C-alpha cells in the first residue's frame, strides 16, 4: 500500500538527490574523514541513515500525474522557512553539507551535521521543532520547504 503520492518530477528529483549526496559523501569522506576515527564513523553513520531514510520513503510512494510536486520533507540543500516562536519572526535556513563553499548570502546556512540542521531534517510543513544550542533552546514552526534552482539532469521514467 502506498502512503504517499508524488509527481514524476519530485520522485526523479529525490532519486537524483540520493545519487548526488552519495557522491558528495564520498568526496567529503576522502577529503576530511580519511582516518578511521569516531568522527568519521559518526559521519558515515549519519549519511547511511540519511540515504536509507530517503530510499525507504521512495519505496513507499506511488508516482502519479496528480502527485505532489512539493518536497515532502526537509532534505539537504532544501531551504526551510521557519517561524521563530521566541522572536516572533520568520527566517530561512538552507541545509548544507559540512564544509560547503556554496551559499547564498541572503539565506543563513545550517550544516546538516549541526544541531539545527539535524533537527530540521525530515520535518514537514507545520511541524514544531525545538533545538538545543549552546546559547539555549530554539523553538520553530516550519512554514515552507523549497528546493534550490539547481539543474537536475533529466531522468527517464525507468527510474521509478
UniProtKB/TrEMBL annotation:
<dbReference type="GO" id="GO:0003677">
    <property type="term" value="F:DNA binding"/>
</dbReference>
<feature type="domain" description="Transcription elongation factor GreA/GreB C-terminal">
    <location>
        <begin position="73"/>
        <end position="146"/>
    </location>
</feature>
<dbReference type="InterPro" id="IPR023459">
    <property type="entry name" value="Tscrpt_elong_fac_GreA/B_fam"/>
</dbReference>
<dbReference type="GO" id="GO:0070063">
    <property type="term" value="F:RNA polymerase binding"/>
</dbReference>
<keyword id="KW-0251">Elongation factor</keyword>
<protein>
    <submittedName>
        <fullName>Transcription elongation factor GreA</fullName>
    </submittedName>
</protein>
<keyword id="KW-0648">Protein biosynthesis</keyword>
<dbReference type="GO" id="GO:0032784">
    <property type="term" value="P:regulation of DNA-templated transcription elongation"/>
</dbReference>
<dbReference type="InterPro" id="IPR036953">
    <property type="entry name" value="GreA/GreB_C_sf"/>
</dbReference>
<dbReference type="GO" id="GO:0003746">
    <property type="term" value="F:translation elongation factor activity"/>
</dbReference>
<dbReference type="InterPro" id="IPR001437">
    <property type="entry name" value="Tscrpt_elong_fac_GreA/B_C"/>
</dbReference>
<dbReference type="Pfam" id="PF01272">
    <property type="entry name" value="GreA_GreB"/>
</dbReference>
